[in-house]
Amino acid sequence: MITILHYKVHEVSSYINWIYFFHAWGFQPRFADIADIHGCDVCRASWLTSFPEEERPKASEAMQLFKEANRMLNLLDEDFEVKTIFKLCKANSKGDNLILDGVTFPLLRQQMKKREGGPFLCLSDFVRPLSSGITDTVGAFAATIDADMEGLYEKDPYKHLLVQTLSDRLAEAATEKMHEHVRKEAWGYAKDENLTIPELLIEKYQGIRPAVGYPSLPDQSVNFLLDELLNMKQIGIKLTENGAMYPHASVCGLMFAHPASEYFSIGKIGEDQLQDYARRRGKSVEEMRKFLAANLQD
After folding, report:
1. pLDDT attached to residue 115
2. What's the topology of domain 2-8+81-267?
3. Which among 51, 107, 140, 298 is placed 20 to 30 Å from 238, CA to CA?
4. Dihedrals φ, ψ of 202, to 5°?
C-alpha cells in the first residue's frame, strides 16, 4: 500500500539539519550551532562572544542568516507544504539484486580492497535471501516541495537562493519525519524508539535510509525503478530522461530495518561488475557507464 503524507512547513522545520544549510552558504559546521541557541538577546550575544575576535564577523553573518531563514520559513508556511510518499514492499535478496513487490532492483557491491579488511558490502546483504523462504520488508520513499516554491523571488537573487537552500533542507526534513513515522508506526519495528531530533540527525535509530546519489546507491537511473514502485507523480515529482528529479528539491531512496545495516560507499568498481550490472539492469554497458562514471576505475 502506498502512503502519502503532507506536511506544513512548520511541521518539519524542527527536523532541519542546519549544518547542511550553512554549508551551502559557505559556513563551517561550528557556525550552524546558532540553530541550537535560545533566541533571546543575552543567549545570542553570549554565543557570539564564544568565538575568537577574528571570527565574530562571520558568526554575526551566520546569526543574521539564520534569522532571515526563519523569517522565510514563516512566510513559506502560509502557502506551501512538503509532500512525502512511501511504500513498504515485500522483499527478498537474490545475489546483488533486491526483489521488491516483484520488481527486480539491481544493486552494486564494493569491489576494491579495503585497508581495514572486512566484507565487501551490498545493500542486498541487509535483506533475507529468497532461498530462505521468508519474506522480508524494504521501504521505498520519496519527498519533495511544492514545485511553485522553485520560482519564488526570481528577481531577488538573495531571497531566491535562500528559498532554494531552504527547499533542499525541507525535503530532507520531511523525509526524516516520515522515516520516524515509518519506524514507530507504519512499519513499527522500532515502536519504543524515543530519540531527540539531534539524535535523529546523527542517525541513532535502527536501520538506514540511503537515498539515490548516496555512496551506497550511486546510480541515478534507479529513480526509474523507484518510480515504478511509487508512482512519484502523485506528489508532483517528474523524472527527466536521465532520471533527475523535478522539483530539484526532491529526494528518494530505500529504507532498511536490519539492526546491522550501515551506510557505506561502493567506491570504484571494475569493468566486470559494470558489465554484470548493465546486464541485470537490462541496459547497455555504455549507458550504465554514463551513470556510473564516478565509480569506474581510471
Report:
1. 63
2. Cobalamin-dependent Methionine Synthase; domain 1 (3.10.196)
3. 107
4. -105, 20
